[in-house]
Design brief:
By secondary structure, this protein is mostly beta strands. Helix content is about 0%, strand content about 40%. It contains no helices and 8 strands. Strands 5-4-3-6-7-8 form a 6-stranded antiparallel β-sheet, with no helix packed on it. Strand 3 and strand 4 form a beta hairpin.
Amino acid sequence: MTITDDGLLLCPHCETTDTHVEHVFVSARQEDQQINEITVNAVSGQVRTHEAHVAPKGSGVGIGRRQRIALAGFCEQCGRRFALVFTQHKGVTLVEVAEGELPDWPSEEE
């Protein structure tokens, strides 16, 4: 994840500033318990709970042992999707960029 000196988020693929973050994925759980997947569409305000998909995860720690929050977006320039992932695992918070398999995002019309 790269941010300019002015605080602008750069696309992890093409490094332009034309990024949009429009969805929040939360994998809510206590340590090693069942996960409640929650999705928030920041454009429409729709919230879905107990989703079937798994929130985006980074390659370093995967799903982790506790909660995970992913801020998902896309780049206007290259059109690729990405997610900034915060994973609570073994007493620390790991921050990663997920670029591989991302779940389908709720559309803006929903």
